[in-house]
Design goal:
148 residues, 7 helices, 6 strands, 45% helix, globular, signal
């Protein structure tokens, strides 16, 4: 029995959906972050703090971890949030509950690690490691963007 190209592609697609690619290990994620950005321990400290903050629903603490200006995509618009108080004042309209849920339910092995940063919640939140001095001897992890 010969299948048409369309039928073959459909079966292949269904097969891939039924058997997704194996996720990388948590150790692989740590290694990728360390290799690309450095200070993987700093990332995981921020990641844990962000999850704790999301559980406590305290926008003040989350705003402390943002890098300003912070790009926020919400309500079909893009906003440059200039300072922490702006994020705090408009938190409920700028950070959706679904975004916080994505942060809380994120599996470490499924983090997105690129040269731009680390995506949490399938890219709902991006964090990056920035240099604090010219030699980049001191760095700080922070929230780069929020994409509801």
């Amino acid at each position: 029995m010969r299948l048409s190209l369309a039928a073959t592609l459909s079966m292949l697609t269904l097969s891939l959906l039924a058997n997704p690619a194996l996720a990388q290990s948590e150790e692989d994620v740590w290694s990728n972050i360390e290799t690309i950005h450095g200070d993987a321990d700093g990332f995981f400290a921020l990641y844990g703090a962000m999850q704790d903050i999301a559980m406590s629903d305290d926008p003040t603490l989350l705003a402390d971890y943002a890098l300003y200006p912070l790009l926020v995509n919400a309500n079909g618009e893009s906003y440059d949030v200039l300072e922490a108080q702006d994020l705090i004042d408009d938190f409920d309209s700028l950070v959706y509950p679904e975004t916080l849920d994505a942060l809380l339910t994120q599996d470490v092995a499924d983090l997105i690690v690129t040269s731009e940063g680390v995506g949490i919640g399938n890219g709902a939140i991006w964090v990056t490691n920035v240099c604090l001095d010219d030699a980049c001897a001191e760095t700080q992890w922070g929230i780069l963007s929020i994409n509801n």
